[in-house]
Write a structure and sequence with these properties.
Strand content: 35-45%
Radius of gyration: 14 Å
Largest sheet: 4 strands, antiparallel
Helix content: 10-25%
Number of helices: 2
Distance between the termini: 9 Å
Strand order of the largest sheet: 3-2-1-8
Oligomer: single chain
Amino acid sequence: MDNLIFEKFWEDETLIEMKVTAISKFSTSYQMCYVDESKINELIDKIRMYSADYTQEVLIEFGKKNGDYTPAFSMKLMKADTRGHVKIEVDIEIDDIGDRSHRCKYFVESELGAIERFGQTASDFYHSSIGTCISMF
């Protein structure tokens, strides 16, 4: 079953480290990301925006894919079909080479209700305990 999971691994005063795991019927991969509270709030806002108008694509990014050496992750919520099914294009950095050029890009399938619930549970994620997971399903 396709899924997207965020797990809180570490925190300090201004950042959290989270493990993003993307699972599809074709591939499973994960990446560690460092985000501050504003990035989690941006994620929540973009998911709310998408839930209000799922006829538009929405891009959510953590980190930059060039330059800066913080791992970069993105997910693009594609337009929902008439039955409420959504493809989420994930772009995960594979940390096996120094120039950050190896990336894994594929679709994770979901549905509108699962995305809305994910956004709701994300509202408490930043301030949650180490080990907390939020999941698309």
